[in-house]
Design goal:
CATH topology: Jelly Rolls
Strand content: 35-45%
Helix content: 10-25%
Low-confidence stretches: none
Order of helices and strands: EHEEEEEHEEEEEEEEEEE
CATH class: Mainly Beta
């Protein structure tokens, strides 16, 4: 069996000053408890599965432009998926209490915007320094492998991976982990 490519790591050169500017911009938004999809596709808060807070950002601003460039670079270099647009708004996510986490999950789903576009590539861009928190590693379980890839990226670094990849954010032991998460997609996989 042939498996799709696994992940693409980009040191974006976003520095602490830019990260703090994004965090300040997002402080204007009300954070809500993060939800997960249940079997019937309704969203609900389930603290056994996910503990974090988030808000949604429009994709048509400079933050979305930076993330889109990262995804397009990764797609051109590695994935070669048929991408047409963002499938959802960008999620500004905060893990800031002991035990905050997001257990194993996949991002693959229909777009919440048009219900025709399918998520194909996921991006996680870190706005926290690895020194700001303990735990909170991003782990990918790559297709065809039994070994996990574990990441604790530097501030400003982005990881792009197939939305079909099983992944999680390990529990926070202390501190605060802040990231931007987004998904680009296109027509159904063939």
């Amino acid at each position: 069996m042939i498996y799709p490519p696994d992940f693409y790591y980009i040191p974006t050169a976003i520095d602490k000053e830019v990260a703090e500017m994004i965090i300040r911009k997002c402080s204007d938004y009300q954070l809500e408890d993060s939800k997960v999809f249940s079997d019937d596709q309704n969203q609900s808060v389930d603290h056994r599965y996910r503990i974090s807070k988030h808000c949604w950002l429009a994709t048509d601003n400079w933050i979305g432009g930076i993330m889109k460039h990262c995804i397009e670079s990764a797609n051109q270099s590695l994935f070669h998926f048929d991408l047409t647009k963002w499938t959802d708004k960008i999620q500004y996510t905060v893990y800031d209490e002991e035990g905050s986490q997001y257990k194993w999950h996949y991002d693959i789903s229909k777009s919440s915007i048009d219900n025709e576009t399918v998520r194909k590539l996921s991006i996680s861009l870190l706005l926290s320094s690895p020194d700001d928190y303990e735990g909170g590693e991003l782990q990918l379980l790559l297709p065809g492998e039994t070994v996990m890839k574990t990441f604790k990226p530097r501030l400003g670094d982005a990881i792009i991976f197939s939305s079909t990849t099983r992944h999680r954010v390990r529990p926070i032991k202390s501190g605060k982990r802040i990231s931007l998460v987004g998904w680009m997609g296109g027509p159904d996989f063939r």
